Amino acid sequence: MLRRYPDAGEALSCKPITQGLLNHGYRVSTTRGRYFLKHHLDDSTGDRATIVRQHRATQRLQSLGVPVAPPVQDTEGGTVTEIGGRCYALHPWVEGLHRAGAQLSAAQSERLGGLLGAVHTGLEQVMGAATGIGRRAGGLRSADPADTFALIDELLTAARRRRPRDAFDELAEHRLLERLNLLERYADRRPPTPDAPAIGWVHGDFHPLNVLYRDSEPVAILDWDRLGVQPRAEEAVRAAAIFFVQPAGKLELEKVRAYARAYRRAAGAEPAELAAAVHRVWWERLNDFWILRWRYCRHDRRADPQFPAVSALAVWWTREYETVREAFTG
Fold first, then answer.
1. Is residue 161 in a domain?
2. Nearest to residue 255, comparing CAs of 108, 115, 119?
């Protein structure tokens, strides 16, 4: 791999990085520095053309002052190396720490919202306006409760059949039954498909593991695999629901409020756009069981630790719906 990047020097060590669910990453030390080697494994985003588009976007965003870590270019000016049918990219190593919302002050939360707004407006400049894409953009169709009821039945059966059962299985059964009751009660609040959604280019996976901090400032936004066209405000709401969720499943609303105000200013988003996004993401969370699908259908438990807070959030958000909406729009 490094033969294609002679300026990177000779390899001294290559250590796998355990964080990350979809791709593999390695910390590479060489005679000339340190690098992040990314092995693109996700079939939906791991083809060369898609990766090159991501790389070009980060290169252009860097010229606008957005903190990113564009890939290193090889001797021919390329940024993707294909070996054995798999794609790899070499990035400069960026020293920093990941910070969840609990580790951010109100001022830092505000800067985070402004940063995401800058990402969205920057992407519009470097990728072009997303007009004309309309309903081809993902995330516009809301979940059908009939499909969710069938999924709940499937997951309940799987959770009850597991042997030996553990505390996770007990919690999963409890949350599934709880969610079934909530969906029966709120089925009539399914969001309509918007006629003219405020769509645009988004990062697609903006969460604590994809933002690096040095001291109190973000120094790099990582992992652009999900770069695509989506309703922009929904990314802002989803990100807040990940950054600012507490272990008990509540959102730190004062930080959410500071974050959302800064996002609206930076992105030029109206409160009504955020209100609609809050409703759609709430409904999405109410119908979402991706962690249980990973556990019971794919037999993959890597996301299990996220389940207690994520599953509690859907219930709390339903109870505090108006308060949460006000935090994003006030």
1. no
2. 108
